[in-house]
Amino acid sequence: MSVVPPIWNGCLAMTEMDHGRRWDPCVAHRGDEVDDFLTHYFAQPNRKVLLVAGAGFDPRSCAVAERLSNTAASVRALLIREERPNPPQDQSDRADANTKILLTTLADRQVVPVEIFGSDGAVVGGRNVIRVFSQQQHLQGMTDVVVDISALSAGTSFPIVRYFVERIGRGNEAVNLHVFVVHDPCLDASIRSMASDAPGYVHGFKGRSTLSDTAEAARMWLPQLAIGHRAPLERLYGFIKPHDTCPILPFPASNPRIGDVLAEEYLMRELETPWSVDTRDIVYADEGDPLDLYRTILKLDDLRKPVFAETGGSMLVLSPLGSKVMALGALMAALERDLPVAYLESIGYELEGTVPEEIEQSNLIHIWLEGDVYPHPRPALPMDGNTA
């Protein structure tokens, strides 16, 4: 491994170690560590950064952009404006206000509207956002790509991250890839998704679910439980038709009772019937650490493979809902094992309670996905879900 500067070396997230895993160990930062990293790493004037972020109503839209603008790095920004039919006026006004701040904060920037649904109602957001990148030479001369998923939906953020991981993995560009997210469970819960009626797979994340050689595979579904998502999860269950279901609950969590609240909401109708979930089947993952869920999913995958090897194989299907931090952990596991990610795209959002127009303090999480700090060659990623 190349020598890692001290500011990052102390933040290598270590486990009991499986050296065959792509992000074990992984360079990650949380809280004040992120500000230290941004201050020192991007203080180098030779850093040329492509920032990809959402320009929407979410009050977290500007957090990473504002921090990067205060560094010595040269920043070029591609700001994704997710367009859905008939958005509420207050959300449009919030998005316009955030976009104005981003345009003022960043000198070299472009706002790109991305239609999430086609004229026939089909989900096209993932394909549309990848088309934006594939038609331009965004990485020429860049040293770093920063993807801020805080104000992006899974339907766009997952394909974007996969696109850059695959491009960098092909060795065409020596670029560092960073993913940032603002950790705010209360805000995640307050922005309630109104799911569409048509379940499907995130663009680039079908995995091997549609191949004939996996038709007999034992499917285990790992849905991330979130308040107010019973109906979407019921539709996803009917779409996936899993043989086993292992719901994911946040623990530890900022709200120590959230596990009990979620269990109560889902206990009678889903967990007992038709999911038939035993208490031993519940998966717990640290709400504030994406690497915890990433490692847990890979361990489950490793345990199941030899058990079902002679009877059609095993397949894990992920459904990240609610917390964006835990969704990031699911994204990393899906990338490494080419796992299918089933979801229902949001046709709109409801703001529950009081959602501030801006956040005073943001608890950032940073994952360094690709680049200089990792040994080469790295474990190869399966490419069946290639977004290109």
Protein described:
It is a single chain. This protein has 388 residues and is of the alpha/beta class. The chain folds into two domains: 6-184 and 357-370, Rossmann fold; 199-344, Rossmann fold, CATH 3.40.50. It has helices at 6-9, 32-41, 63-69, 89-105, 125-134, 154-169, 185-190, 230-240, 258-272, 290-307, 324-337; strands spanning 12-13, 26-30, 48-54, 74-83, 108-115, 144-148, 176-182, 191-195, 200-201, 218-223, 244-245, 248-250, 283-285, 314-319, 342-343, 346-351, 364-370. The strands form five sheets. The protein has an eight-stranded mixed β-sheet with strand order 1-2-17-7-6-3-4-5, sandwiched between helices. The chain has a three-stranded parallel β-sheet with strand order 11-10-14, sandwiched between helices. Helix 5 runs parallel beside helix 6 and helix 10 packs parallel to helix 11. The longest helix has 18 residues, at 290-307. The radius of gyration is 20 Å and the shape is globular. It starts with 5 loop residues before the first helix and ends in an 18-residue tail after the last strand.
